[in-house]
Amino acid sequence: MRLVFLGNDPWSVPSLEALARDPGSEVALVITNPPRPAGRGSRLTPTAVAEAGRRLGVPVLETDGVRGGEGFDAIRNAAPDVLVVVAYGELLSPEVLGLAPLGAVNVHFSLLPRWRGASPVQHAILEGDPRTGVTVMQIDRGLDTGPILATSVEGIRPSDDAGSLGTRLAQVGAALLLRTLPPYGSGTLKPAAQPQEGATHAPKLGARDRIIDWKRSAQSVAARVRALSPDPGASTRFRGEVLKVLQAQPSQLPPGGVPAEPGTVVTVDTQGPVIAAGEGSVRLTLVAPSGRRRMSGADWARGARIQPGESLR
To answer: Which residues have C-beta within 8 Å of that of residue 182, sequence separation ≥ 6?
Structure first.
């Protein structure tokens, strides 16, 4: 099956690798975003998909979108049987979908119709879902509303953050994609209409979503930290500066301790500082102070000489 692959994220790469190595698939073209400034010094950096495509020896086009211009023309000239889309981030127009006889197939990191949208992994953790999974679906004109071709269920572990869960789902999705494309291409796999009942939406998380609200429960605060780790990280302020919180755990108050104002340092010990939440408390185990490297909560507390009664806001 001849295909054009569209993706941008590191989570796109396992599917691209699987297709490039599959004897039944021909990756005619990979389309991904152009290099963007990243890291210290804002050096232009190609996407993970561009790097993987070159390593795999498949043609790569770095372009801003495919609704027109060189992206659209490149797909048309590649004459694919199907488009494969994994974490690409752009809605495909009907004109683009019409460039391949089999349309477009998307690997989406949730069990649709739950968590349609840009951040399904993060929202599943935020809401405390016990499980999630991968859906391989046909793309239609809506946002993740197309017919379902296959699904695979994956549990969410208590230790999972967005990074670990997304990495695991990317591998699950690659395997599911390889199992799904042959029967889809031959017409023996019939798409199933996606139910509307149970549909939820997972919009991209913005800067305001990263801020920890200490008035929420300890479980909610810890879930937000996991949902935003390892990047960009949940954040709070301490002594007037931004503090990224990358790992945190609900914690018990120390013996004899009494509930404090949310955001107050309750105690500091060898395992890190414990912060009062709206219900319960939270231990900070991995943080990144403003302009500094990541460090354990214990090392940060020791170096900053944090005292009980100080506040995070």
So the answer is: 1, 24
